[in-house]
Hints:
Elements: E1 2-8, E2 14-20, E3 23-29, E4 39-45, H1 51-67, E5 71-75, H2 87-101, H3 108-134, E6 139-147, H4 150-159, E7 163-169, H5 176-182, E8 189-194, H6 202-211, E9 217-222, H7 231-245
Parallel strand pairs: 4-5, 4-6, 6-7, 7-8, 8-9
Antiparallel strand pairs: 1-2, 2-3, 3-5
Amino acid sequence: xxxxxxxxxxxxVRERAFTLGDIPGLLWTPASASASAPVPLILLGHPPLGLGxxxxxxxARALQAASDGFAAATxxxxxxxxxxxxxxxDRARAELRGAMRAGEPVGDEIVDALVLPLVDQAVxxxxxxxxxxxxxxxxxxxxxxxxxxxxxxxxxxVVEPRISAAVLFAGSLVPRAVFxxxxxxxxxxxxLLQWDDEGNERQASLxxxxxxxxxxxxxxxxxxxxxxxxxxxxxxxxxxxxRHLN
Length: 246
């Protein structure tokens, strides 16, 4: 990990850009974080739209985490931002858009081609980032995962023992193989669902929630479209992490 820039935001929050090999990332730490008083870490997931486009939403979430006493970090997903394109994923996205424009059902083949290669590459990268981040003296576990592509969150919850709680944003483009993985998830979960999400099949989200094997899991549904998550939902998610990471 190499830090490439640094700036200070509101309330003394330090934002540092870094690279992990050729993967860009961002780390936010509250003013209270130090080697003598390390703070827990929340990994901020996001859709594959590029860190530049997602930055305003990511920094808002990071500032919320910092106000609760947590550090936050994120990395660029494969094929996004300035990272090399992944032709197979681009083809799958084109097929998805074509099916949606035609009003046709999105078949399992398209969903698998769109999601599984992304999960297979992104999850080891998140784990490598976690290795590097937890080596910093001002950071410690437990670790939370928040948001992003829900299939990545499911895989991480299964394979990464350092993640002890997750806030997941419901989405319906979930391969059947991920439903099988969901049954192996055991950490506490807080799942957000937008009831009128125009790009989300509600029943598929409910079925995935039902599949989760966690003994502690809660579903928080709010009226509105994909980008209409109310502030109260974010506040509830923050309280969830406060309970489980402190």
